[in-house]
Input
Amino acid sequence: MNDRSQLQKELRQAGASTAEVKELPPIAASLRVLKNLDTKAINRTHPRVSFWQRAIKPAAFALSGLAVGMALVIISQGVLPSSWLYPVQKASDSVAIRIDAQYRANVMMKRAQQVNELVANHASSKLVLATLADYTKDASTYKSMPHANYAAFEYCKTNLQQATTSASPSIHEAIATSLQNLQTT
Output
């Protein structure tokens, strides 16, 4: 008895229908042919991908993401609080302060300059006051640090005094109060 007849007999015993008994033996024969194929021929048509080839795309993606992130941080350093990049600036400033507490002087001077620029650009009082509050908080913290650089405070004072020359009365009063509070603490 040949293999095909034996397979048909086993299929009937297993409960296969007449249609299944006719269709399955040719499929089984095809599988035997596939089993005997030369695996080297398959490997030539489907070469293996090395670890380095698989790692290049994710590494390139990660590096490009890092480059875009760094570019955003660098660009955000020169924006005003009215920019959509301002939260990036504040976050990167916060990280820099955690790394080096003395960087707070740079942030403090930047906020004082931003107050001056916002007043000169006739920004909303709400935005100017929020930036002034950020400056006051940073300046107060910086002033309590040992080795505080008082030249940085003079720079800030100059910027804020310039802002008062064209500020509305409420902004002028807020800046004067901030300067006075920092001198007495």
